Amino acid sequence: MRHTRNVSKRFVAAALTLAALGTGVGLGAGSATPAQAAGTGGPVVVTTGGSVRGSADSDGVRSFQGIPYAAPPVGGLRWASPRPAASWSGVREATAPGSPCAQPRGLPIGTPSTSEDCLYLNVTTPTQRTGNGKRPVIVWIHGGSLMFGHGDLYGAERLASEGAVVVTVNYRLGVMGFLADPSLRTSGGLGLEDQQAALRWVRANADAFGGDPANVTVMGESGGGYSVCGHLASPKSAGLFHRAIVQSAPCATGGSRTRKAAEDEAEAVLTYLRTTHACTEEEHAEACLRRTDAATLMEAYGTWKEPRPIAGTDLLPLTPAEALRSGRFNRVPVLVGVNHDEERGMVLGQELVSGPMPAEEYEPTIRAEFGVRADAVLARYPLSRFGSAGEALATVRTDHAWSVPTLDTARLLSRWTPTRMFEFSERDTPWWAGLKAPSFAPRAQHMAELPYLFDFRTPLFEKPTEKQRALAERMTDTWVAFARTGRTDWPGFRSGGHVQSLASGPWRRTEFAGDHDYAFWKSLGRG
Known about the structure:
This protein is of the alpha/beta class. It contains 16 helices and 16 strands.
């Protein structure tokens, strides 16, 4: 089977789903409102909505889960901008997370769900307050292509132990968060609006958890990183955060889509519903969409989409790239980075299903992806340079789609605001738990840095070695230090285009542009 880019994404999803099936991940279809009880023993914090009781562990960390930050977007609030959550009396138990937002079965970083009552967040905080009670706040926006995921999957205890208050957020995904049929009259970016509502909740409540509402870092990876690009570009996010961390999400080439693309996608959903007789031909589009259940809507929408907010709206007047080029964005210190081998996991995921890529498929695959530019690409990346065709293809795709536009992103940002850039380049990283050994080393594949920052609630990755734990400790310390000060212990990007390599052993500057053939790709154009 030809190793095309879209096929690769489907296969990696299928392969990694196999790893998720045995981890106890189940269907989260019901309402997740925690019980309100008068139990004792856990720490109690008073929020703007009412009191919540969490839990404390022996490592000096407190956890508060399943706190509503907006009203459930159900009934008449489906596809509406987020509304304030209702307050409650008594003490609300906050020891269990809220339901994941509606999402299909697909990637192991998500949980299949049909729940629309899902706008909850989780707070992890050190037990001891500092002298002035002010700790930096990190708001984590999970990845998953804006189709999968939920905040509570990412255990933030290690970041909290380094001195941060960490908030992880659920937000509407896929068809429930980004459907843009004209009849619905939405911004086309309700998932981004949900995140803004969570940031407003943080501004109002951070101090109650020992955090500093005037020092909030918004942080995301992959789809969550593109959301951070959106917050940098959105006037409606102004003042809601003071630093930004963007991981594996080059703002220079992603983070939004056109209205036409979004409306074409919505029309395809309606066509499916009418073809399958879920709706009648005569039924008005809005009536059809509003009465159709979430499971059917997700079936109509499809599983392997990558929705984005619409540019050219009040929510997102400019694309993130245009905002960075013009300087019309929320200028805060930014830590931006990419993994050295982003696409290795994509190719290896396909190989787990279809077997190693045959050498004779390499050239046809490159020609299918790069057209008239393929001769130049093949000359620059000859198969003879690599141990296998899969490794060669992963290198081409990494340099073209990830490394080059991330360097462009850092260059755009650094013209206007303090910017630090990193490359996660560890070669010995944990592989996916439960999957057979890959045909070549995954190294710093997409998502490989996440086990160094979070402890996953389900065993997605192999257990770390002592060497890997040492790197993780240094990385969490660096991330929290940036959240606290907006600086790192390496120079800013504007000082000669400095890119810091993060790996076991000494951290040092990497020759990023040369390593990823930046000049070659810029001369070739994106085509």
